[in-house]
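Hi support team,

I'm opening this ticket because the web form for multi-chain structure prediction keeps timing out on my end. I have pasted the exact lines I submitted so you can reproduce it. The total is 666 residues across two entries, so I didn't expect it to be a heavy job. Is there a limit I'm missing, or should I split the entries? Thanks in advance, R.K.
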Amino acid sequence: MIGVQLPTPSLVIDRAALDHNIATIGEALPGRRLRPHVKAFKSTGLARRLFDAGHRTFTCATVREAEGLAAAGLGEDLLLANEIVDPDQLARLAAIEPAVTAAADSEETIDRAAAAGVRRLVIDVNVGLPRCGCSPDEAGRLADRARAAGMDVRGVMGYEGHLMMVSDRASRIRKVERSMAMLLAAADAVGGDLVSAGGTGTYDTNTWANEIQAGTFLLGDTQYDSLDLPFQLALTLECSVLSVNPAGWLVVNAGLKALGMDHGNPTWPHGEVMFCSDEHTTLRCEDLSVWSVGDRTHLYPAHLDPTVAKHERMWLVDGEEVIDEFAVDLRHW
Amino acid sequence: MIGVQLPTPSLVIDRAALDHNIATIGEALPGRRLRPHVKAFKSTGLARRLFDAGHRTFTCATVREAEGLAAAGLGEDLLLANEIVDPDQLARLAAIEPAVTAAADSEETIDRAAAAGVRRLVIDVNVGLPRCGCSPDEAGRLADRARAAGMDVRGVMGYEGHLMMVSDRASRIRKVERSMAMLLAAADAVGGDLVSAGGTGTYDTNTWANEIQAGTFLLGDTQYDSLDLPFQLALTLECSVLSVNPAGWLVVNAGLKALGMDHGNPTWPHGEVMFCSDEHTTLRCEDLSVWSVGDRTHLYPAHLDPTVAKHERMWLVDGEEVIDEFAVDLRHW
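Hello R.K., no limit was hit. The queue was backed up. Here is the completed structure from your submission:
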């Protein structure tokens, strides 16, 4: 429990942990070796901290993220690491200055991007995760098509998302190598400078890509915290105790509207999470008598990205003191 | 697939289904017999549809919802069916005119509400769900304490949330009766007019409460649709096909940031949902050849409330035509 009277529920970032995470990733992946993925934290204020630490290129998942970064003066080299097919979104993407590098994995996505005036592209290659990405042997042909349409093809990207949670490090290294062999084959066929891949789970085991698209390292979540990574959990959800029931539980004022739930319940360091409702989480612990209505406590979210996207702002705290506020200004599409 | 070119992902409401749901609940629970719970749809525009259908009292879960309804002229009788302990939120609650009826389940929550200037209260009674609510035999004593502090105690509320998904109707009726016996015992001790309870799952089996706090009936979700209720699924998530992979899947541009996931994956009527990522859902079906990049398709969310809370707006459609837009203007706290 901390003493600051933030509104509840509120996302709270620990300054020391944030600083540790930025320093740790910067030692492993200085400057452009890291292309931070803003989808994890959706805040230009936090992106600026990374920019100030020397990481001036960013990865985005949505047009809104790219627009927001550009408007904040952080758009000198943005990669929108996703296919865009919506006509209105393509027009917005093409209007951003400096030109954003988009991703394409098919003739249709290239043709739509070209028709909308998108000027920079990477070829998105499937490296084992069943999601977007062409097969490696199609990548060269797609690059030719994009260049014939006048586009600057900067290289390739591929996301080994299926390998982020491989818990054994040696196994992770072997699997990432096989996955990246596909990307490197495509890179040979495509040309250009960029070989963009990776995430927090493989930030130091993916030594084949020349830039890593990690984002979760910055704030963390309980799932990534189960890996052997040197990052600290910086983000918690501060909430207030609403009810202490002598039958054996207490209730706090944060639930499904404040937590990304696809990785399961949050973690409560003082006991067990029974279940989450829209605006409540019911908790139980050995000694209820230490809890009173109005007490503050903290939950650790299971999945960072969708948790942050539910909030309007996050607060930076140093011990008991609230020292900064970050608007979650890159939400929606 | 429909022809309108909404941005994607977008929440889409079918007009005929919405009208059906409003008419159906209105026949069972006319006027004040229904106190619609706005937490399910978080939109003053949709609340106004219910107001115009004769339901002029509303249930809220947050101070923000109560503020928004009052500002929209829909606040003549609001019940904030939740304990509020945050000092700033209590001050905001007390400032709303006309006075909102708050809930309390302990001496502490009564004292905090009274000190903040909250004037109307119900006693929140635990009727079997391990969440907020006092035991029935404490309710009278708490009502006395609130009245001694000058508050208008309007009655009791209790939410039989643990019974919403009892699939056998006869069993649901028996269990609701036992649950409501606790609430009615408390109501006798508390006095006042309100016996407020229920939800969509028990809207017609809870015949003991004198007002029902249902909200999901309005738009629906796949979990409630599994029950024997007469409401229609009115809400879908429109998305665009980004990628069709001949290896056996297609990918659409809506995922964890657009869907409440605590009840599991959404449903896709044309095949199977493999998994959701932040901005993607990977789908598979028997015949991939009917799908092309740029096609529109729709996912059915598993849980309405946290899905809606992820969006800025919803669109009302009548066949191919977009006829209205509802801002999701009651989000956050």
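A quick check on our side: Chain A touches chain B through 62 residues (CB under 8 Å). Let us know if the file doesn't open in your viewer.
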